[in-house]
Write a structure and sequence with these properties.
Layout: E1 2-6, H1 13-22, E2 28-31, H2 32-35, H3 46-65, E3 71-75, H4 80-89, E4 96-102, H5 105-115, H6 120-140, E5 145-148, H7 154-164
Parallel strand pairs: 1-3, 1-4, 2-3, 4-5
Helix pairs in contact: 1-7, 3-4, 5-6
Length: 168
């Protein structure tokens, strides 16, 4: 089983992914941001996204071969087509269950600012942009089972995902 956590930066994908794997006896977490950590990396480049998906599939396959299931995968999938490409790379690794996390734009900005990273204004702008893109794209096609994380704790979001896939 592959659990995909989709959403804009700052929504809690990484924390939710870790919470899920920490609550299970044998599970793995693949954060594509770290798997695809090469420079330069252009999120708008189909070639670079393909590299990221293939790299994540190699790591996920390794985990599955060694009995670490489910594998939780985290990244921003801006279009349904990007999820289809990921699904194609993960064939044979188990059923893919995508989830799309969201929260209000104001809360998203607060969460990004709390990170205290360099280039915070660029991250805030990118967070707003991704929020708008995901809202628009999800109105036309499936980007994952929607969970509004605005008023939920990380534990609650993780539990909701686990219940939805039939683990709890």
């Amino acid at each position: 089983m592959i659990i995909v956590i989709n959403g804009p930066l700052g929504v809690g994908k990484t924390q939710t992914g870790w919470r899920i794997v920490e609550s299970l006896p044998r599970a793995a977490f693949v954060d594509i941001d770290y798997i695809a950590a090469v420079t330069p990396f252009d999120h708008n480049s189909a070639k670079d996204r393909e590299y990221a998906y293939e790299s994540a599939a190699v790591v996920a396959a390794h985990h599955v071969r060694h009995g670490y299931v489910p594998v939780v995968v985290s990244w921003v999938f801006e279009t349904p087509e990007q999820l289809v490409l990921l699904r194609e790379r993960f064939v044979g690794l188990g059923e893919l269950h995508p989830f799309r996390l969201s929260c209000s734009p104001a809360l998203l900005e607060d969460r990004i600012r709390q990170r205290g990273n360099e280039n915070i204004e660029r991250e805030v702008a990118r967070g707003r942009e991704l929020h708008a893109v995901l809202e628009r794209e999800s109105s036309r096609a499936d980007l994952g089972y929607h969970i509004d994380a605005s008023a939920r704790t990380i534990d609650d979001v993780a539990s909701t995902i686990l219940r939805h896939v039939g683990i709890r």
